[in-house]
Amino acid sequence: MVDRTLTRARLVAQGLVAAGAADPAELAARFLALQGQDLPGALSSVALRLRSGTDPIGRVQDAFARGELVRGYPMRGTIFVMAAQDARWLTELCAPAQVRASLTRHRELGIAQHHLERARALVLEEADAPGGIGRAGLLALWEAHGIPVAAGAGYAVLRHLIQTGVLVHGPLEEGENRIVLARRALPEGSGLAERFDGDEDAAVAELLLRYLRSRGPATVRDAGWFSKLPLSRLRAALPRIRDRLEEAGTDAAGEMRFQRPGLAAEIEEAGAAVDATFLLPGFDELVLGYPDRRSLIAEADHPRLVPGNNGMFQRGVVRRGTMIGLWRRAGRPGARRLETEEFAPWPAIARRQARGAFARFPFPAP
After folding, report:
1. CB burial class (10 A; 0-12, 13-18, 19+) of residue 149?
2. Choosing a second label site near 182 at 20 to 30 A (CA), which of 11, 132, 162, 363?
3. What is the pLDDT of residue 180?
4. Residue 207 to residues 52, 74, 77, 202, 227: CA-CA distances in angstroms?
5. Across the chain, how many H-helices and E-strands are there?
6. CB-based contacts of 44: which residues, under 8 Å, 6+ apart?
7. Is the pLDDT of residue 365 over 90?
8. Pfam families per the record (predicted)?
9. What is the pLDDT, as a whole number, of residue 11?
């Protein structure tokens, strides 16, 4: 059931009403990891949450160029944008289970252990430069040395090497990330052992804290879905951070929600701005940051957000605490226009606000 109050709180918590971070790396660290499947949309999701300043999308791209942001596969087999300082420890904490789970898929794709070892050796030799290597060049290199790349095998090998701490997606070039060695791209001392003195429980607590403070009101179970860490570990970590959170009522299952202290005052201060019309990228954290989207969008409208339930999310329009439609950018460069799909007829003010949001939207070039 749609919960407008909950969605309003999450809009404020996530920095979509009053942008909450001065620079992209700070924003990524606050969220710990942001959905990154659609690279242009991921850049926009970060830029939308930056405090006022010129060229927010350029600031995000520059953060990748400086090595402050990377993309990787820390959890759920899904690609995320992260601050470089968090990528190694988060991947070491959450990815091992996904690596083990991928073995069956590797066999189906004809990927053997010796292929992974050879791919690793080749990339350590050929990509050992600050600029790394392009994805097409890397796949061609592997194919030339007998490593399977067809039918998704190359993608699976690349994901394995990112999940095992060899590679990351780094600076942007021609609309995609260069692939760089993790030992070059990630800060020294940023691994799990160094950051937390070998205390994995402290790392679990840090993950839980950042999830709840950036996305709450949310539950510990929500954080379990997000990270795929055992729920028992997350529940055990809660007492470590309990004094840095406040309760925010319970969900339909009776589980306590938590949020950052002072969020209620932030919502009150936002006033009518929280009910404005927001244009979201397709894989934005407001949509994908939680296991259940029924608080955001009416169940009857959900198939339009994810046609065929195929995992490809359309761009949503949110107003007054609920998703009211979809949007797309039409036309050619230099003559772009907003097109919308209304779940039900919108009032004139919603259309006017949507046009304003479109004019301000931080699109990557072109």
Report:
1. buried
2. 363
3. 97
4. 28, 12, 17, 9, 8
5. 18, 12
6. 57, 281, 361, 362, 363, 364
7. no
8. AlkZ-like
9. 98
User: What would the mean pLDDT of 343-355 be, rounded to a whole number?
Assistant: 98
Span 266-277, average pLDDT: 98
The pLDDT of residue 199: 96
- d(C-alpha 84, C-alpha 65), whole Å: 12
Cis peptide before 217 (omega within 30 of 0): yes
Look-up of token digits 């999940």: 163
- Tell me the average pLDDT of the chain: 96
Q: Count of residues for the chain?
A: 366
The runs of H, that is alpha helices, within the chain are: 4-13, 24-31, 39-48, 56-65, 84-101, 103-108, 113-126, 135-144, 153-163, 182-185, 192-196, 200-215, 220-227, 231-241, 263-270, 285-288, 302-305, 348-360
Q: Which residue has the tokens 């954080």?
A: 223
- pLDDT tens-digit map of 316-339: 999 999 999 999 999 988 889 999
- Among candidate residues 291, 349, 287, the one with its CA nearest the CA of residue 320: 349
Q: List, in sequence order, the alpha helices (H) in 216-347.
A: 220-227, 231-241, 263-270, 285-288, 302-305
Q: Which amino acid is at 347?
A: P
Task: Give the C-alpha separation, 329 to 307, whole Å.
Answer: 18
- pTM, rounded to two decimals: 0.96
Averaged pLDDT for residues 40-53? 94
pLDDT of residue 95: 97
CB 167 within 8 A of CB 180: yes
d(CA 42, CA 285): 9
Residue 67: count of CB within 10 angstroms of its CB:
18
Question: Any residues with CB less than 8 A from the CB of 210 and at least 6 apart, and which?
Answer: 29, 30, 31, 32
The strands making up 246-250's β-sheet, listed across from edge to edge, are: 218-219, 256-259, 246-250
C-alpha to C-alpha distance for 331 and 338, rounded to whole angstroms: 9
User: Residue 253 has what DSSP assignment?
Assistant: T
pLDDT reported for residue 20: 74
**How many Å apart are CA 179 and CA 18, to the nearest integer?**
34
